[in-house]
Amino acid sequence: MPDQRALKNPYKDYDGTQNLFDPQGNLTPSFAGRITNKINDLLTAMEKGLKSADPRDCTGYTGWAGIALLYLHLHGVFGESSYLQRALEYVSRSLSLTGRWVTFLCGDAGPLAIAAVVYHRLQRVQEADECINRLLQLHQSVVKGVGSLPDELLYGRAGFLYSLVFINQQFGQEKIPIQYIQQICDAALASGESLAKRNRTQDQSPLMYEWYQEQYVGAAHGLAGIYYFLMQPGFVAGQDRVQSLVKPSVDFVCQLKFPSGNYPPCVGDERDLLVHWCHGSPGVIYMLLQAYKVFGVKQYLEDALQSGEVLWQRGLLKKGYGLCHGAAGNAYGFLALYKVTREARHLYRACMFADWCMNYGKHGCRTPDTPFSLFEGMAGTIYFLADLLQPMRSKFPAFEV
């Protein structure tokens, strides 16, 4: 039965004759120029659309912090000072913090971390340090809140953890000591072990996590996103714990794979429906590739490659062109595969999804609730197109380390 959530992929697959990039992965000037022109067109449309956006939404996911992150990224790619000024403008709007959540995408940590980096690039040292200090004031509540705080990316510990990693990467130095990162991971491990024992699943998976009483699998709310962070080098103090706790938990997720190569949104869900970054193969790819890097087991790479096939067949979503559940977010899966394998077909497939995105609005896709935002709308598509100009440096925003 054809997938009702995706449009049929109209593109011919890679056969070695398509001339979009050189053997080093540099896009041809004509294709890169087409992307750059489209970025400019979409930015104009986005700015116009943002005039009617919710002025109170300060989040990275759908609000002002996400737009600031886009302009910060564009400044990094193109080096134009006007983009940094736009980032400053939007991040200034995002600093009306609520105290409700602590994460990069949906809480206070994201606006603070983005503001710190914007100030850093503007050489406003005192303001950057103030933002980092405010971020670190949240740290103890994140460490101590075992049981009361979730562990997933959008609202939990992984989302706060990313904020610390983002600071260190953007500053190019260890502004946040590694011990702070390790303490967050320690708390996440304790939380995961506790739930696995409570649910009596520790023999299958030594770590288990829930969000609203559901054991989600994907990158946004689930196991794959959390395990991806717990496998990052140095994040967990003691490689033995990565081997004894994280690896068998990753293997548990691998066993959930459908015959198609896709993954369920929740443990126990038998419906092979969702092919999104947030739920399904597009988000699980990152866990699989990281497991392959850390443990060297070829099956993880094979599973990731199978996920790539799911993406190619079912990744052009009727939901639209966004990051969380759209074509741009799915295209990042191809870039992740390309960075590990250096196989041209993955970069080609990302380019074809970019071609789809450059025909924005012409496929009859749904209009998201926040049509110009980073994770649901146009800003995320622009972010992806800019990343495609430098494939080996590309990273799924607010997630990929």
Which structural class best describes the helix and strand composition? mainly alpha
Estimate the global geometry from the Cα principal axes.
globular
Percent helix range: 40-55%
Mean pLDDT: 96
Order of helical and strand elements:
HHHHHHHHHHHHHHH
Name the poorly predicted regions: none
Number of helices: 15
Structure description:
By secondary structure, the protein is mostly helical. It is built from 15 helices and no strands. α1 (29-50) runs antiparallel to α15 and α11 packs parallel to α13 (327-341).
Write the layout of secondary structure elements.
Elements: H1 29-50, H2 64-78, H3 81-93, H4 109-121, H5 125-137, H6 139-144, H7 157-171, H8 178-198, H9 223-230, H10 239-254, H11 281-295, H12 298-314, H13 327-341, H14 344-358, H15 378-388
